[in-house]
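Troubleshooting entry. The earlier prediction with adenosine monophosphate gave an output that would not parse, so I re-checked the input for stray whitespace and re-submitted. Clean input:
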Amino acid sequence: MGQKVQGTEDLYGSYMRAWQHMQDVARELFGAYGFDMIETPAIEQVDTFVHGIGESTDVVRKEMFRVVSGALFGDLLEAGTEAGLKPRQRMAMRPEGTAGVVRAAVENNLVPQGAAPAKLWYAEAMFRGERPQKGRLRQFHQVGVEWLGASDPASDAECIIMLMEFFKRLGFDPSKLHLYINSMGDGECRPAYRDKVRAFILDHRDEMCEDCLERAEINPLRAFDCKNPHCHEVMAGAPLVNDHLCGDCAEHYAAVKRYLDEAGVSYTEDPTLVRGLDYYTRTVFEVEVEGAGVGAIGGGGRYDGLMELEGGKPTPGIGFAVGFERIALALASQGVELATPEPACVYVAGTGAEERDAVFSATLALRQAGVRTEADYQGRSLKSQFKQADKLHATLCVVLGPDEVAAGIATIRDMDTHEQVQVPMDKLAEEIVSRLR
Ligand code: AMP
């Protein structure tokens, strides 16, 4: 028997309805904010992620699922190196959504200079070669937004306000949600700050883990995120970014906080919040749920340099992504069901083989009238068909026996009250539609 790959899940039944519900909520809310949906390919050239996410990030260095065609696989094994592959032959499954959307925006010129911003949202599977555990999968699903071409701090605030509203509409108790925000500075002030953090790590090299020493060289800010408790303790004394923001970044950050205050969105400033991907500038944010034990359920930030890294003109941008599976776990921990109820239907029951054609016609007419309709295809007894109708949450049953068929009528049975009425066959769909209303 085949088995699914470790860290992947099959989505069906209530889990699938939960994922669809999340997309419906996103479509309505993000639509109200002017966002349109986009879907980019699940595979991109590795360069798209290297440019966008950053060569030094864990995601690019360790977690990307690399893709190579079957035809090239043997050659690659034989060569023992990918050096001979052309850039277009080096592909990866997308580990996150932003780099692909920004690549698409550049390639399709979605933000012509001087034109209105592009506001895009997506709901897609992401792939990361992580060690699977609760809330950490190798294939998971994200809903995310990217707002390209907006630099105003009001857009940062609107993004965050929309994210918090999204969580509320999914059923979270807002008092259990914790929003953490920070500013990571920009090209003006971050390099000097990075150097300070690097120097700090090197000053404490005897107390830090090997990984952090490596981080000091390539991406020192990541040391704030080290899982090693000892490094964590040491980093508590490291210089904080707030004290090193340039005037413009400080002003931007203050404006974002002012807008959030005005909107009544509460937040905690966390000067050690450094998101894992290299492309962030200025505002970054993350949301956790009290007591859920699944880590962050969503996060995002501003990425003003990313369009350029993907080969476009300098264009500011901001976005966020939330993880479906973690949200489902976090909601379950609060006793909230994300899935919508199983949809109701109308069941058409026939008493025997002779009524098969009449069942077929009635089913066809109901479906053409837009009614979710089920029937028996296994020649079950009438009693089993009623049982099946209950299982399928039928609110009404249409019963067709020899008498009904001979008289050209149908019996409609209310599955709750068991009350029955008879209607002419050619009025069946009309009657059912009006009863369902
Ligand atoms: P990130 O792109 O790492 O900021 O992730 C954004 C959101 O996606 C997180 O807050 C999680 O909800 C979710 N997420 C990230 N990685 C995983 C994973 N391996 N498995 C499940 N959900 C994930």
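This one parsed fine. The chain has a mean pLDDT of 94.
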